[in-house]
């Protein structure tokens, strides 16, 4: 049986996941971006070229760390959302820690007037702060890690950065597959992104750990006496 449409929400929709969906169901998935606090924020139209903001429901601003507006086309540090229909609990310029970019204004061929956002890189707290090859620090965006892990023969993964290095917890890794290969693949991707990666090791686990709400955070930093303050929030949907 073939579904009429396939929607993807809650996690980053990677290029590989798109291909898998198309291959399995012969349908291009519609990427949907939402959060528990706001419900829907944006969704792809049939053009699959960015996600139209639901501007009649939510005012969405892409801002930097200080809350200043970001130039269209560049990834911001977070989003401020104002929900127009929420009367019981008004949300006004409420911060979401997702890194997204607003697409420049030319209208979408579908005819909808709503502005579009391009990729959602993932939660800002999922970015890994690592020493940079050229000195100083670099913030490695989650999509770098996603691309490295996506094609491996496993059913689940979780990358944890702590003071001892990076541990990749892998679930469902084929028995014959090599955890060393998993670790090398991630280390190579981080090096390619310009980071001097700390030691990377991969460990087999029966299943990756989940939050009380059932989500499995894919990338966590637990360093210097505590997790990122943004961690622990649970969102209904984030996308690429
Ligand atoms: Zn459109």
From TrEMBL:
InterPro entries: ANL_N_sf, CapK_Type1_Caps_Biosynth. Residues 225-240 have a biased composition (Basic and acidic residues). Residues 220-240 are annotated as: Disordered. It comes from the Bacteria. SUPFAM superfamilies: Acetyl-CoA synthetase-like (SSF56801). This is AMP-dependent synthetase/ligase domain-containing protein. It comes from Serinicoccus chungangensis.
């Amino acid at each position: 049986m073939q579904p009429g449409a396939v929607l993807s929400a809650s996690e980053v929709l990677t290029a590989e996941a798109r291909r898998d969906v198309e291959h399995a169901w012969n349908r291009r998935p519609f990427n949907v971006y939402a959060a528990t606090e706001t419900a829907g924020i944006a969704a792809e139209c049939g053009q699959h070229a960015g996600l139209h903001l639901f501007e009649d429901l939510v005012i969405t601003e892409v801002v930097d760390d200080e809350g200043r507006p970001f130039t269209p086309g560049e990834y911001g540090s977070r989003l401020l959302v104002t929900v127009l229909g929420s009367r019981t609990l008004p949300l006004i310029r409420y911060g979401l820690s997702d890194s997204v970019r607003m697409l420049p204004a030319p209208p979408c061929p579908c005819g909808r007037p709503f502005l579009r956002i391009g990729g959602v890189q993932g939660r800002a707290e999922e970015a890994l702060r690592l020493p940079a090859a050229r000195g100083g620090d670099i913030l490695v965006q989650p999509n770098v890690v996603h691309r490295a892990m996506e094609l491996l023969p496993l059913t689940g993964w979780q990358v944890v950065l702590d003071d001892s290095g990076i541990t990749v917890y892998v679930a469902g890794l084929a028995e014959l597959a090599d955890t060393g290969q998993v670790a090398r693949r991630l280390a190579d991707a981080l090096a390619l992104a310009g980071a001097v990666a700390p030691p990377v090791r991969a460990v087999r686990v029966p299943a990756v750990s989940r939050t009380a709400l059932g989500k499995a955070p894919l990338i966590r930093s637990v360093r210097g006496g505590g997790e990122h303050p943004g961690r622990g929030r649970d969102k209904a949907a984030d996308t690429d």
